[in-house]
Amino acid sequence: MSVTIQEEDLVQSIADAVQFISYYHPADFIRHLARAYEREQSPAAKDAMAQILTNSRMSAEGRRPICQDTGIVNVFLKVGMEVRFNTARSLQELCDEGVRRGYLNPDNPLRASVLEDPIFSRRNTRDNTPCVLNVELVPGDKVEAQVAAKGGGSENKSKMAMLNPSDSLVDWVLKTVPTMGAGWCPPGMLGIGVGGTAEKAVLMAKQSLMDDLDMYELLERGPANKLEELRVELYEKVNALGIGAQGLGGLTTVLDVKIKTFPTHAASLPVAMIPNCAATRHAHFELDGSGPAHLHVPSLSDWPDVHWAPDYNASKQVDLNALTPAEVASWKPGQTLLLNGKMLTGRDAAHKRIQDMLARGESLPVDFRNRVIYYVGPVDPVRDEVVGPAGPTTATRMDKFTEMMLAQTGLIAMIGKSERGPVALDAIRKHKSAYLMAVGGAAYLVSKAIRGAKVVGFGDLGMEAIYEFDVVDMPVTVAVDCNGVSVHNTGPKEWSARIAGVPVKVE
Known about the structure:
Elements: E1 3-6, H1 7-23, H2 27-39, H3 43-62, E2 72-80, E3 83-86, H4 91-103, E4 132-138, E5 143-150, H5 152-155, E6 159-163, H6 169-176, E7 188-196, H7 198-208, H8 215-221, H9 226-239, E8 254-264, E9 269-276, E10 282-287, E11 316-319, H10 325-330, E12 336-345, H11 348-359, E13 372-374, H12 399-408, E14 413-416, H13 422-431, E15 434-437, H14 443-447, E16 450-457, E17 466-480, H15 487-500
Parallel strand pairs: 1-3, 2-4, 7-8, 11-12, 12-13, 13-14, 14-15
Antiparallel strand pairs: 2-5, 5-10, 6-9, 7-9, 12-17, 15-17, 16-17
């Protein structure tokens, strides 16, 4: 007997799902992160986890995005072969309409990050469409849907390789994870696809990220088969790398490792690995013809009793309005700061435009002399907000512009997330600058430190415009000091040694 799904039911269910996952972490993720927080011994990693857990609760209570990067939407549909849709539109069009409606919701507008033309104009579609849709026909009379919002920081760290059949999957993972840096905002999970063909392996890796986290349960009961043994082995060995939360060094880099497999050619071993970040976001629902889906709202009791607040004893308060190169040069790696005063923002598009203007000898719309720039693309504000969630974007994307900004604009410090590469480290060392790290995955928490926000340049770039933020006690860590010493290098080295039981020399 066939079942009819009304187009409005699918559209509204997709819209509801993208709203839901913007502010609710999956309960299994919160449970695993809370347990990792309890066992963490690295002060820097524990503080980062506290910010992420506090941010998560705040987002659930305020129904505002967990992360400023509200992602590109992935929709996986399993359509029963007895289902028909009462519509003249394609499934892609219906899902896109749901995404459009969800992202433009006036009560909680989400950041539009999707660009229409990936190669040339890179024009923002302004409604985060189109989504990435995968459809599978299966027996039955229902539609099963999985909706995820994948942030660019974690998606950009996706890896794929065609290994030889005799190669070790474990060796490849352990060699590859350190190359991913911290831009994917650990702790999160790794999705691994093995087998099939190149595109099948990548699809399986992405699909595996939709599964519930169950590593703690698996560790308690013990593995029941070889695949579970492999998951445990990878979980333990990846965490032994000591990368830790936000790449600062610590006991937990991954909360879980998921693996999907498929038969493959005798000459092949396709493997793909995709991380999910600290802003893991996905929802699952079914449609049976009775109306739109109803998503289960989690209870606040699912969150641990963790409430991050500024530590005025351990952190130094900094007046950005009176900041000097000498003070920047005095900061030490790993030192925690609370920033107060006015800072500028800018990311990829703004840096490219600045580069072009300087090359033409044109004046910039703002003066960067003795200023700090924050790499961020905020969510639009609602109601009484000054700005929406405004967490850091991956700083390594700005590495190629660092020498230009420090040499030609008078900029003296930068804020972002993840590590800086050799080019940026050289520029920071040369100009006696510093790089400060804010916690990725704590965007709503960070936004509460922003008391004023106005566009001061490149307004046509939308969320990539240059803003001036007025902040009060915005928490950051000195990730690179004026000598080019990076905690993203020293932290994991220290904690991998500690985990291995090797004596650690304290400098």
